[in-house]
Amino acid sequence: MKTKQQTEFEKKVLDQFMSGKNLFGKEGAFAPMLKNVIEKALEAEMESHLDQQQRGNGNKRNGKGKKTIKSGFGTFDIETPQDRQSNFAPELVKKRQTILADNLSDKIIGLYGLGMSYRDISSHIEEMYDTNISHTVLSQITDKIIPDVKAWQNRPLEPLYCIVWLDAMHYKVKVDGRITHKALYNILGINKEGRKEILGMYISESEGANFWLQVLTDLNNRGLEDILIACTDNLKGFTDAILSVFPKAQVQLCIVHQIRNSLKYIASKDQKEFMRDLKLVYRATSKEVAEDALIDLEQKWGDKYPVVIESWQRNWEQLSQYFQYTEPIRKIIYTTNAVEGFHRQVRKVTKTKGAFTNDMALLKLVYLATKNIEKKWTSPLHNWSLTIQQLYIKFGERIPLILNTNSSGASPRGIETTDRV
């Protein structure tokens, strides 16, 4: 037969459950049970700690302390046993630990990686788990990923990436109390299996060929030996920086960047007609046809816009590399759209941030955003098996194409196994 106390307890549990309240929070029906289990576990740890050797050295119990624990089940107070020599180090609730469950830390880091502010995260955690966490503690929790960020930045790379896009994003970062504009350099690569990978992220005061040289040198030091095709914007000195580290790389300048830069110097009344003529150059069926169209462009517009025409002629060798390939590969390499698409996804996460408190605050958030984005990169690029064969024909032994032969003798993807082409 149930006692009155049991009936009241069951009613409290049911009422809190139906109303959506946290059963383990401070006023939760199960809170005393959880508190009791944790305290008994700590007592058992203390009993194990005070073994014969500890007692022989004069160590013994020395009362109890109090600690407020925040967890995925809510916030509650516990009593922690203490020893006279203060060398008791419990495993369940460690010294100075206030966040009990790692899963709560994981939730906080996950929310931060989605671009939520500390204020929003704090409100969400309080609403969902009846736990109030300060901005300072939230910052300390997100700082736990700093070793992961550094390890990721310094991880070894594959010796070969078939296609690499290099571009920079720009952010505001506080330096000594002042807001400074900084460039975040990102390198997106395609390995020989056709899979995307962010090879690295680097921060500098501004975008320039000198810093790109440092970036490329770091990639080389981390194991990257060869790049087949490097796709970049039209930054002055960029091509020389790439070739100084990867002399065999084929550099393709971004056609879209070139067009944007050209239109800056074309009068608005001429832009529509100029673009119609320019399309005959970059959409030509072959390099020879494109060069004929470029001559026609010069004859028509050279006197009026000599700077624009001279820019196309000066950069033509790097602008026209994509004509060597079929249409599917041309679409991949003639612009930096691949890395800019990655940037658009990152900006969805970072757009709520006015200015970052420091460089690492920026790197933490972009790193988390990158890991979320990379989860979607589960398959090789479309028609990669055909693309890799064209690259092999073009670059020969620089790309160790290895065919995967199944029991029927078919080679489904052209990815690594044992039979070298």
From TrEMBL:
Pfam families: Transposase_mut (PF00872). Keywords: DNA recombination, DNA-binding, Transposable element, Transposition. InterPro entries: Transposase_mutator. NCBIfam families: transpos_IS256. Required for the transposition of the insertion element. Belongs to the transposase mutator family. This is Mutator family transposase.
